[in-house]
Amino acid sequence: MKVRQNSLVRRVRAFCVLYLTLGLPCVVLSQETPPSSSPAIGLRISDEPAPASPPSAPPIVQPAPLPTDAAPPAPELDRKTVGETVNEAVEDVIDEIASAESSLDIYFEQSQPFSSYRTHQTGFQWIPGSNDDLGWFSWQSDPYLSRASDAGLSLTFNLHGLSGPVTPDVSPRLYDAVAAYQVRRTISDRFSYDVSASVGVFSDFEGSARKGVRFPAHAVGMMHINHRADLVFGIDYLDREDIKVLPVAGVSIREFIVPNMRLDLVFPRPRLDFVVDDQHRVYFAALLGGGTWDFEATANTRELLTYRDYRLLFGFEFADDENHLSAIEFGYAFSREIEFANAGTSHTFPDAFVLQWVSRY
Fold first, then answer.
1. Contact call for residues 110 and 281 (beta carbons, < 8 A)
2. Domain check: are 353 and 204 in the same one?
3. Which of these, 182, 134, 181, 179, lies nearest to 160 by C-alpha position?
4. What is the DSSP letter of 128?
5. Which of 87, 237, 247, 333 pairs with 196 at a CA distance of 20 to 30 A?
6. pTM score > 0.90 for this model?
7. Domain total for the chain?
8. pLDDT tens, residue by residue, 287-298
C-alpha cells in the first residue's frame, strides 16, 4: 500500500509540473512519513474494534520545485509591440503606394489622349542682343490651368526686358498682367474640349495703358478617333495687332512610327516627342513668339509695339519630384520684326539663338 501511495504522489507531482509549466497554481502533497502519532496507512486484521485514531495533521502544502531540465514558461507576447509593428508595416506600404502614385511617368503621360490645348507653364527665355540687334529676356508664366485641373481662374504677371539698338527707341521693360478662366471637359470617350477666356494689360505701365488691354482666348475641340489618334480643331484668338486670330487644326498620333514616339501635328504649336525612359524625353517644337504692348514713346505720345518671331526648338524634358515637367530648350528664332502701329513703321532683325527653360504643371 505504501508503494501505491508513493506512485500516487509521483503522479500528482507530474501533473503539478505540467500545471506550473502552463502557469497554473498547484498544490502538492508531501512525501514525508507522517509523524509517529499518526497511524500508518494499511490493513488491520483483528477481531477487536480498531481504536479511534486521533485526527491527523493536515498535509503540508508547498510548491513543487521545477525539475532542472524543465523548459521555462513560454514568454507572453507583447501585444502592444506587435500592434505597433503591424501599424508601422502598414504605414510603410501606404507610403510606398503613395510615392508610386505621385511619381510622374512620362511613358504614361505620353500615352494620354490630346485633351488639353494649353497648360500652365513658367520659365524664362533669352535672345541675346547687341548694338545692332534686339535682345529679349522674359520671365513669363502662362495663364492656364495645370494638367490635373478641369476648371478655374489663373492670375499671372510677366516681365520682359529689351536691349540692343538705340533706334528704334522702345521701353526697356514691358509687363503683362493677365486674368484668365479656363474650362476643360471630356464629354465622352470620343470628344473633349478646352475653352479659355482672359483679359490682360500689356504695357510698360508708364501713364495710361488703355490701348494695352487685350482679350486673348481660345476654343478647341478634340475628337478621339481611337486609342492612338485624335483630331484637333478650333480657334486661337491672340488679339495682337499683327495677328488677331489663328485656326487650330491637326492630328495627334501616339506610337508614331515607334512606340516611344508621339506626333502632335497641330497648328500653330506642333511638337514631336521621343521618350528616353520613364523620367526623360526629348522633343522638337515650333511656335509663334512675341506679342503687342502699349508703351510711352515720348512724354505725350503712346505707341503700340508688336514684336514677332518664329521659333524652332529642341528640348530636353524631365519629370521632377513634385510631378512637374521641366525642360531646357535650345532654339532658333527667325523672321524677327518689330512694328509700330501709330507710326506705321517696322524694323527687322537678324535671326538669333534662343535659350529657354520652362516648368510645366
1. yes
2. yes
3. 134
4. -
5. 333
6. no
7. 2
8. 999 999 999 887
d(CA 287, CA 229): 22
| Angstrom distances, CA of residue 16 to CA of 13, 22, 36, 70, 267 | 5, 10, 28, 12, 93
Closest CA relative to residue 197, chosen from 222, 178, 215 = 215
Cell numbers that stand for 345 in this block: 513703321
Amino acid occupying residue 175: Y
Which residues constitute the domain of residue 240?
106-360
Confidence (pLDDT) at 28: 44
Would you say residue 141 lies in a domain?
Answer: yes
Query: Is position 295 within any domain?
Result: yes
93 in a structural domain:
no
Q: What is the 8-class DSSP label of residue 28?
A: B
The three cell numbers of residue 105 are 511617368
Q: Does residue 273 fall inside a structural domain?
A: yes
Q: Is the peptide bond before 268 cis (omega within 30 degrees of 0)?
A: yes
Claim to verify: residue 189 and residue 324 sit in the same structural domain? yes
Residues 220 and 263 in one domain: yes
251-328-259 Cα angle (round to 5): 40
Q: Is 152 left (phi over 0), alpha (psi -120 to 50) or beta?
A: left
Q: How far apart are CA 248 and CA 253, in angstroms?
A: 16
Question: End-to-end distance of the chain based on CA atoms, in angstroms?
Answer: 96
Please say whether the beta carbons of 179 and 214 come within 8 A.
Answer: no
What span, in angstroms and rounded, lies between the C-alpha atoms of 111 and 228? Answer: 8
Residue 24 to residues 4, 66, 69, 79, 224: CA-CA distances in angstroms? 26, 13, 19, 21, 75
118-136 per-position pLDDT tens digit: 999 999 999 998 777 889 9
